[in-house]
Amino acid sequence: MDIRERRSRVRNFSIIAHIDHGKSTLADRLIQSTGLITEREMQEQVLDNMDLERERGITIKLQTTRLIYKAKDGKEYILNLIDTPGHVDFNYEVSRSLAACEGAILVVDAAQGVEAQTLANVYLALEQNLEILPVINKIDLPSARPEEVKKEVEDVIGLDCSDAPMISAKEGLNIEDVLEDIVKNVPAPKGDNSDPLRALVFDSYYDTYKGVIADVRVMDGHIRKGTEIEMMATGKKFEVTEVGIFSPGMVPIDQLNAGDVGYVSASIKNVKDARVGDTITEAKNKADEALPGYKKVTPMVYCGIYPAEGEDYNNVRDALEKLQVNDAALAFEAETSVALGFGFRCGFLGLLHLEIIQERLEREFDLNIVTTAPSVIYKVAKTNGEFFEIQNPTNMPDPQEIEYMEEPIVEASIMTPTDYVGPVMELCQGRRAEFKNMEYLEETRVVMHYDIPLNEVIYDFFDALKSKTKGYASFDYELKGYKRSELVKLDILINKELVDAFSIIAHEDKAYERGRMITEKLKDVIPRHMFAVPIQASIGNKVIARETIRALRKDVLSKCYGGDISRKKKLLEKQKEGKKRMRQVGSVEVPQDAFLAVLKFEDK
Amino acid sequence: MTNGALYIHIPFCIRKCNYCDFTSFNYNEEKVEEYITLLLKEIDMYAEKVKEYKFKTLFFGGGTPSLIDEKYIYKIMNRLEQKFNLSLDETTIESNPKTLTRGKLLAYKDMGINRISMGVQSLDDSILKDIGRSHGIKDFLDTYELIKNVGFSNINTDIMFNLPNQSIDNMITTLKGIISLDVPHISFYSLKIEENTNFFEKYKSGNLNVSDEDTEREMYHKGIELLEENDIYQYEISNFSKKGFECEHNMYYWKLKPYLGLGLSSHSNMFNKRWGNTSNYNNYKDNILNNKFPILDTEIIDKKTKMSEYIILGLRLNEGISIEGFKKRFNVDIYEAFNGSIDYSLKYGLIDINREKIYLTKKGLDLSNVVFKEFIE
């Protein structure tokens, strides 16, 4: 087949959806119904995924697959399904995946209707000028209301739903309609094989055998084994060792042409050298301009990660290094805490990213770690004219040296049934959020727009929102910018000694409340000692909250006769063992879980 | 020959008290008969093993040993006399006030029992009922009169404090009542909520009204004060007596001297070992019938363990431990072996050192576990 004819048969598309609306199930069905793999292989493929993804029902790592579909017009089409991560933390990755496509299938749950991430994803797709094909899923559910949901999609998003496939991905119902829809309505890629090479990297990861693999969409030109390539953002050059397609495993082929989706391996050692969003060009025949939209993803949220047992320091470092090979967004550097010893300051895209790394360290690497309170990046202007960023509260200068500070603000949209508007407003007010506006999506549902300081979002905002709305509200945000703010460093002193691992940066108006909550929590989790232990929260030298753990009054086994000795001795030994596992802060023993306990704030 | 103490467990009760986690069964004549037969056999089995020991004290504990017919106690005593070297200075039987009769007491006296220990717990009928005791105040007063009448002078009463719904005054009233009866020995101890008891379930569900730690300690301190004002001196964390009425048997435990326990769930400490019998009746029975020792687990006590046990048990006694005695027994200087532990305990005022002795201070009595934890590995 001639290259042009072949290109006219290619369809590059993504599936976008709110979490749990059935994105992965539909992807699985599409793969199956094009006969690519059997039910059994399907199962195995699912099992290969990270446990964490399946448990949380979200996609963290992308998967790209080429489907061959024989359409009703009798022709065979090449459908490249480019998966997208399903969480706001990974918005940038989603946008790059979408940039590799011409169309997107928008999956909407026939019972739930349009949700916050449905909208957020639609906006991302629109930014890339994609053809958006609505699909109404889960029509088999008793609570399905497909006609209403269709109308909702038309009213809220403005997409014509008259021909939208009505499917049940779970039951395999009307999947063919989706495939036909893709063939008919997703435009074939443009581009010319003879132009200088421009290939968009939309994912990259480390493969033990092949080194770093870059998943690419070739926009112009072509690429093959032996091509000397240059990464346009970094200027680094590599020689291509293999190109191929996903079918669904990696299958080497001779050449990727303009319009194709595939992979490139070029013995690149670190994913940092093949960052998502970068453009690959040919070193000898460079394109004039890189593809638009490259940005180096930078962490938004930081926290300290420390080994629970000091001797695990090297193991934690090795584990972080291994994770970083595959995760260009993860940042870390060594740091020392007076309370926790040697550990690492780690940067993440968001809270979910943080939690995923934390869980992977614990599960995949079997490490016992202590995590400190998460922080965002603040900007500090000093009276001497210096201007810099900090993310570790320990680095905050003395208040008298600070001219002003800025904190990151996010634009948040919260979609909720109207019944919960009151509780959501209450929650947001408590989080220093600035109300922007509220739109009615339909009579019973609204989307509320707020500007919220990110530092309020990272303190359990999502959990609080879920509990206030019985799980009905959905939430999405993106960074808006920085804003001046009256921020203070809140320190915690245990027995008059500052424990750096507990320090946080908080808004002046919230510091008192936070200080009180932390001291109360610590009072509960730190055991009684031989002496009274004061726990203070302070700003500078000013104590704003104080609790006292009273001295131990009684620790005695009143009876001990012949038969009791072994049993009681074991009890004492066990208690002594527990004591050894605690962190020593001056003369006070602080249990490991104290560091976790202060991360969680209950909303009253 | 080495001196030793002997303990016999009689696991039968009228009913189980709400706080009790000891091994015991409801009374059943056939089962008692069978149990005694097994016990007699266990005595036979040990005869050869302990022939180098001379037993100075004997203690019938339970359960409620006074519940079973005195003929069984006689059989046991008789068998012990035949098989073991007995040179008893003190023979105690634990009892419930409701189970003692003149006839029984006379029989005990005849067979050489010279100390009666009674579970009294409180002199408040509603509290007694709440904690599941089968006796009332009157039962105790009548029985106590009887015991004295029959001619026993060495008597112990167990008194508990920090009982559910008990005030400090209520506890004081009980102690005053006991003092007025001129009881020479009192075990005065705090209720401890043990797992697998009625109280534990109630406590977990928040339905047990026991005092907070501060009130509990106040009861203890006031109790000690009141007893000592009346010449009943504390000699161990929970034991008080008039001079010369200290329980010799229990001293074997606290001074880490040899003792042998026979019967269900009893414990022994001899030959550098400590072992415990099974508390499962059928296991006990099967083992004995098959000529096997009914032992559940054994711990070898090496020198280091022995040193630390010597200290943590010895410190329970008000007289404390003798620095010279320690050196004599272990051939090690206590300061060398436990330098850090002693410093720590001294620093917080938990122990004191006076001439030749190390002992718990008043504060140390409340925080004895803190000290003990310092002395165990």
UniProtKB/TrEMBL annotation, chain A:
<dbReference type="GO" id="GO:0043022">
    <property type="term" value="F:ribosome binding"/>
</dbReference>
<dbReference type="InterPro" id="IPR000795">
    <property type="entry name" value="T_Tr_GTP-bd_dom"/>
</dbReference>
<dbReference type="InterPro" id="IPR009000">
    <property type="entry name" value="Transl_B-barrel_sf"/>
</dbReference>
<keyword id="KW-0378">Hydrolase</keyword>
<protein>
    <recommendedName>
        <fullName>Elongation factor 4</fullName>
        <ecNumber>3.6.5.n1</ecNumber>
    </recommendedName>
</protein>
<dbReference type="GO" id="GO:0003746">
    <property type="term" value="F:translation elongation factor activity"/>
</dbReference>
<dbReference type="Pfam" id="PF00009">
    <property type="entry name" value="GTP_EFTU"/>
</dbReference>
<dbReference type="InterPro" id="IPR035647">
    <property type="entry name" value="EFG_III/V"/>
</dbReference>
<keyword id="KW-0472">Membrane</keyword>
<comment type="similarity">
    <text>Belongs to the TRAFAC class translation factor GTPase superfamily. Classic translation factor GTPase family. LepA subfamily.</text>
</comment>
<dbReference type="InterPro" id="IPR013842">
    <property type="entry name" value="LepA_CTD"/>
</dbReference>
<dbReference type="InterPro" id="IPR005225">
    <property type="entry name" value="Small_GTP-bd"/>
</dbReference>
<dbReference type="InterPro" id="IPR000640">
    <property type="entry name" value="EFG_V-like"/>
</dbReference>
<keyword id="KW-0251">Elongation factor</keyword>
<feature type="binding site">
    <location>
        <begin position="137"/>
        <end position="140"/>
    </location>
    <ligand>
        <name>GTP</name>
    </ligand>
</feature>
<dbReference type="Pfam" id="PF00679">
    <property type="entry name" value="EFG_C"/>
</dbReference>
<dbReference type="Pfam" id="PF03144">
    <property type="entry name" value="GTP_EFTU_D2"/>
</dbReference>
<dbReference type="InterPro" id="IPR038363">
    <property type="entry name" value="LepA_C_sf"/>
</dbReference>
<dbReference type="GO" id="GO:0005886">
    <property type="term" value="C:plasma membrane"/>
</dbReference>
<dbReference type="GO" id="GO:0005525">
    <property type="term" value="F:GTP binding"/>
</dbReference>
<keyword id="KW-0547">Nucleotide-binding</keyword>
<dbReference type="InterPro" id="IPR027417">
    <property type="entry name" value="P-loop_NTPase"/>
</dbReference>
TrEMBL record, chain B:
<keyword id="KW-0411">Iron-sulfur</keyword>
<keyword id="KW-0349">Heme</keyword>
<comment type="function">
    <text>Probably acts as a heme chaperone, transferring heme to an unknown acceptor. Binds one molecule of heme per monomer, possibly covalently. Binds 1 [4Fe-4S] cluster. The cluster is coordinated with 3 cysteines and an exchangeable S-adenosyl-L-methionine.</text>
</comment>
<dbReference type="InterPro" id="IPR034505">
    <property type="entry name" value="Coproporphyrinogen-III_oxidase"/>
</dbReference>
<dbReference type="Pfam" id="PF04055">
    <property type="entry name" value="Radical_SAM"/>
</dbReference>
<dbReference type="Pfam" id="PF06969">
    <property type="entry name" value="HemN_C"/>
</dbReference>
<dbReference type="InterPro" id="IPR006638">
    <property type="entry name" value="Elp3/MiaA/NifB-like_rSAM"/>
</dbReference>
<protein>
    <recommendedName>
        <fullName>Heme chaperone HemW</fullName>
    </recommendedName>
</protein>
<dbReference type="GO" id="GO:0046872">
    <property type="term" value="F:metal ion binding"/>
</dbReference>
<keyword id="KW-0963">Cytoplasm</keyword>
<dbReference type="InterPro" id="IPR010723">
    <property type="entry name" value="HemN_C"/>
</dbReference>
<dbReference type="GO" id="GO:0004109">
    <property type="term" value="F:coproporphyrinogen oxidase activity"/>
</dbReference>
<keyword id="KW-0408">Iron</keyword>
<keyword id="KW-0479">Metal-binding</keyword>
<dbReference type="InterPro" id="IPR004559">
    <property type="entry name" value="HemW-like"/>
</dbReference>
<keyword id="KW-0004">4Fe-4S</keyword>
<dbReference type="InterPro" id="IPR058240">
    <property type="entry name" value="rSAM_sf"/>
</dbReference>
<dbReference type="InterPro" id="IPR013785">
    <property type="entry name" value="Aldolase_TIM"/>
</dbReference>
<keyword id="KW-0143">Chaperone</keyword>
<dbReference type="GO" id="GO:0006779">
    <property type="term" value="P:porphyrin-containing compound biosynthetic process"/>
</dbReference>
<dbReference type="InterPro" id="IPR007197">
    <property type="entry name" value="rSAM"/>
</dbReference>
<feature type="domain" description="Radical SAM core">
    <location>
        <begin position="1"/>
        <end position="233"/>
    </location>
</feature>
